[in-house]
Design brief:
Elements lengths: L1 H14 L28 E3 L3 E6 L2 E7 L9 E6 L7 E2 L3 E4 L8 E6 L21 E12 L10 E7 L8 E2 L4 E4 L8 E6 L11 H11 L2 E3 L11 H6 L3 E4 L7 E2 L17 E4 L4 H8 L8 E8 L4 E13 L3 E4 L2 E4 L6 E13 L5 E6 L21 E3 L4 E6 L19 E2 L3 H10 L3 H12 L8 E2 L17
Parallel strand pairs: 17-24
Antiparallel strand pairs: 1-2, 2-7, 3-4, 4-6, 5-7, 8-9, 8-12, 9-11, 10-12, 13-23, 14-15, 14-16, 17-18, 18-21, 19-20, 21-22, 25-26
Length: 470
């Protein structure tokens, strides 16, 4: 009897195990006291006849504990308090798989159009001045792919068109669809019809954001190839090659002023390491003590958010490794290349200056590595990205860009060794049963790993002007 009671007690404890959503997820860093000026961190933003605020405190309305991601269900909320004079513009919903972390907008009509939020008299479309086309975002809840693929499903919402020049504003709310497809676009989200950037931070406020939120990067204990500043790379023997004149490369000026500007990545120029072997090996290792992080400040979601993209330059990216069951193997030359650019992006609310999300890029798009080892460990090598912060572009303000930023060609050479031969070299040393597993791993890795070619610079990547977080 005692064993049965213990079993039942354990089952009840398992049932009562708190779901991730029962924990509120917040970044530990609090927003700084920003210097006054402009419309940044003032609590509300004028979209042109409609003033909006951001609400992050919620009361639970309803929850289900099945369906949705990992069959854990979802929870639905309404704002617990809205500033006086504002109206609710949507409710919030989130799958139970993750800690609670979200927001919705409230709105009040501007003085020029006090009827813009009048109570509806019916369900006919009467105005679209403040709206932009919306699309479905991540799946929140439903029975998709389980009982009924065409049943009721709940999705997050986001503006269909997103980027630096796009004025769609996310409300933070959700959409419901009575089918299994999420390919329908609806006129739902708001639009910054004023088309201004008044809520973006000024230079002094940007400095405060960098000081408050800049991440510290800890490198793996086994990492041999560390970052440097771009200028250090140039000053220590980087060479500019031109197609047809490969035997006479040119040293790069310390500020990159002799790099070809503009144009396209047509293969006519590329950068490479010094020719001298000892200098080459030294430059490969980088210069962490004097490395810069390069900051790109850009408006997002109709200038209701600020994206802070932080770029770090490595003179050399070492070869990849793969994990095959219990064995970790080096892939020889596979994965290595000259001139590596890595970045992450901080998203800050322009309503109050709080840090809302952090995006980590991988292979220019945040993709997984499908078998290639991507270990994390905290070594002694550390980089405080805010210590030598170099703000290279502020989209809403005028600034002088460094010449290397507008160099559109590759930051390393393309080498023509045969990938098949490199793979065979690795396979030869593997036990028989791991050879097939190795082939499966290699067949699924990103194309940029299976070759040696330098990357394009930050400004030439699609996510420079776009929204990379989705």
């Amino acid at each position: 009897m005692g064993n049965l009671l213990n079993f039942l007690a354990n089952m009840l404890m398992k049932k009562k195990k708190p779901l991730p959503i029962e924990t509120i997820s917040r970044f530990s860093t609090q927003p700084p006291d920003f210097p006054q000026g402009g419309g940044f961190a003032m609590g509300t933003i004028d979209l042109g006849g409609l003033e909006v605020c951001q609400v992050s405190s919620f009361d639970k309305i309803w929850a289900t504990h099945e369906g949705g991601p990992d069959n854990l269900g979802a929870t639905f909320y309404e704002p617990s308090s809205i500033p006086e004079g504002f109206f609710l513009l949507g409710h919030y919903s989130q799958c139970n798989k993750k800690p609670l972390f979200g927001w919705v907008l409230g709105g009040r009509p501007g003085a020029s159009d006090p009827s813009s939020l009048a109570r509806p008299t019916g369900y006919s479309l009467v105005w679209t001045n403040f709206t932009e086309i919306v699309e479905f975002d991540r799946w929140i809840w439903g029975l998709k792919n389980e009982i009924d693929p065409n049943g009721l499903n709940v999705y997050g919402s986001r503006p269909k068109d997103r980027g630096v020049q796009v004025m769609g504003v996310s409300t933070g709310s959700f959409l419901v669809q009575n089918s299994g497809s999420a390919d329908v676009s609806l006129p739902y989200c708001l639009k910054n019809t004023k088309n201004t950037l008044l809520a973006m931070p000024n230079l002094v406020q940007i400095k405060a954001l960098i000081e408050a939120y800049s991440p510290i990067i800890y490198f793996h204990p086994d990492e041999k190839y560390l970052p440097s500043s771009v200028n250090w790379f140039f000053q220590n023997g980087a060479l500019l090659y031109q197609k047809g004149l490969e035997t006479s490369p040119s040293p790069v000026e310390p500020d990159g002023s002799n790099l070809p500007q503009g144009g396209s990545d047509d293969g006519s120029y590329w950068l490479d390491l010094p020719i001298d072997d000892s200098a080459k090996e030294r430059v490969k290792k980088g210069d962490l003590d004097n490395a810069n992080a390069y900051f790109h400040i850009k408006p997002m979601f109709g200038a209701t958010f600020t994206d802070i993209a932080i770029w770090v330059f490595y003179p050399f990216n070492g070869p990849a490794r793969a994990k095959l069951e219990f064995l970790t193997i080096s892939l020889g030359k596979i994965g290595e290349h000259v001139g590596d650019w890595e970045h992450l992006t901080l998203t800050v609310s322009n309503f109050d200056g709080t840090l809302k999300s952090v995006y980590f890029s991988e292979h220019s798009g945040g993709n997984g590595r499908n078998g290639i080892r991507n270990d994390t460990a905290k070594g002694k090598a550390v980089m405080d990205t805010g210590f030598r912060a170099a703000v290279v572009v502020v989209d809403h303000l005028t600034a002088v860009e460094p010449p290397w930023l507008n160099y559109s060609r590759k930051w390393g050479p393309k080498l023509s060794y045969e990938i098949a031969k490199e793979i065979e070299k690795v396979k030869k040393v593997l036990p028989g049963r791991l050879k097939e597993l190795f082939e499966k791993v290699i067949s699924g890795v990103p194309n940029e790993v299976l070759g040696e070619e330098g990357p394009s610079g930050p400004k030439m990547k699609n996510n420079w002007n776009g929204d990379e977080k989705y």
